[in-house]
Amino acid sequence: MRPARSFDPDRRPESLAPQHPDFSDDATFRATRRAEEAGSREPRESDDRKPSGFGGGASGERRSSFGRDERRNERPDRDRRDDRRSERPAGTDRPARRNDADAPRGAFGRDERRAPREERPRRAYDERPGRPDAPASAADSNQAGKRKRGEVTGEAPDYKNLRHYDEDKNRGNKRRREEEEDSAEGTTRLNRYIANAGVCSRRDADALIAAGEIKVNGEVVTEMGYQVQPSDTVQYGKTNLSREKQVYLLLNKPKDFLTTTDDPEGRRTVMELIKSASKERVFPVGRLDRNTTGLLLFTNDGEVAQKLSHPSHRNKKIYQVELDKPLTEEDLRQIAAGVELEDGKAEVDDVAVVAGNPHFVGVEIHIGRNRIVRRIFEHLGYDVVALDRVQYAGLTKKDLPRGKWRFLNEKEVIRLKYFM
């Protein structure tokens, strides 16, 4: 038995002839390379020249992109159409077609011999019909913030929980309960009825009653304590009074607006800023000078207006005063003690310098005499540069920019009506 041999993959069998020349010698490699190049070169005949031009063909011969000879189509199509027209029989009634090849053409090949289209007459910009005026939106009014869900532009919110306080006389502060005990069951004092109708405050209603301008069931009533029955009809002039929807809104008054419902001289009033607030007529509670800015309350609730205006209720108001010169410590103590003016002593509840700057002073006061804050500082030799009411009856300017208004929420109304 023959012994097995080890396998060598690089070893070539000795019986096979070499397939390639031996290029181990550089001279042999170069000689072999030159011989191969010389054998591959063959002389080219002149007739074997390839045709020039795109698509092949002899020199000067026109060919299409697919190699077709275009010399057969040298005659224009227009000549062939003219030949066919000349061969048409003479007896035919059909008119000969007009050659439109030379007709003027537009930019897109349209025949421009057609009648031009009538152009629409141009109108000046100011002659164009405008769009109809859109209804005023909430953005056109001076209402602050966005309307809450369910609110309608031009309508005051409904304070539905107020009826619980009207039905239960034990709710509210002691003053309110004592006033309710004076009235009989199911009846209302005449001055209060007039105030609830939004005509005026109860004090002004007493003046109307005394002047004989109020009628009950067609008869003039001048008795101050007259009780109105639920079935009675109360008239002021030619208008029948009834309890209307009560509205309460707060305005951040800007400068140069008068606190009045009407000005005979035509100057701007605060009513212009709230004219789109509600359908009910409202009145300002108290007043602010023309150059005084800050919070101003409007309502048609005569009871609330009377309560906030009367000094006995001690309605708190806070003002920020800007002075032309720093306030001295001595004058600060004198203001806190009370300044004697020509119409009596002006008592303040509190006074302090704002943020350590003596040019700015905060004053808390409850008296409502005319221009009382300005008169206090003018009495001491100061000029008031700016006066701003920053708080009124617990209401603040939070989220209420200058010149904007908002409706009071239900909690604020309940506090003003029943807990002050």
From TrEMBL:
Q: What is its EC number?
A: 5.4.99.-
Q: Which family is it part of?
A: Belongs to the pseudouridine synthase RsuA family.
A single GO BP: enzyme-directed rRNA pseudouridine synthesis
Q: Which SUPFAM superfamilies match?
A: Alpha-L RNA-binding motif (SSF55174), Pseudouridine synthase (SSF55120)
The annotated region (Disordered) lies at: 1-186
What are the alphabetically sorted keywords of the record? Answer: Isomerase, RNA-binding
**Listed PANTHER family:** PSEUDOURIDINE SYNTHASE FAMILY PROTEIN-RELATED (PTHR47683), RNA-BINDING S4 DOMAIN-CONTAINING PROTEIN (PTHR47683:SF2)
Q: Taking every annotated instance into account, which residue ranges of this chain make up the domain RNA-binding S4?
A: 188-250
Q: What is this protein called?
A: Pseudouridine synthase
Q: Which GO terms describe its molecular function?
A: RNA binding; rRNA pseudouridine synthase activity
Basic and acidic residues compositional bias, start-end: 1-14, 33-51, 60-131, 157-171
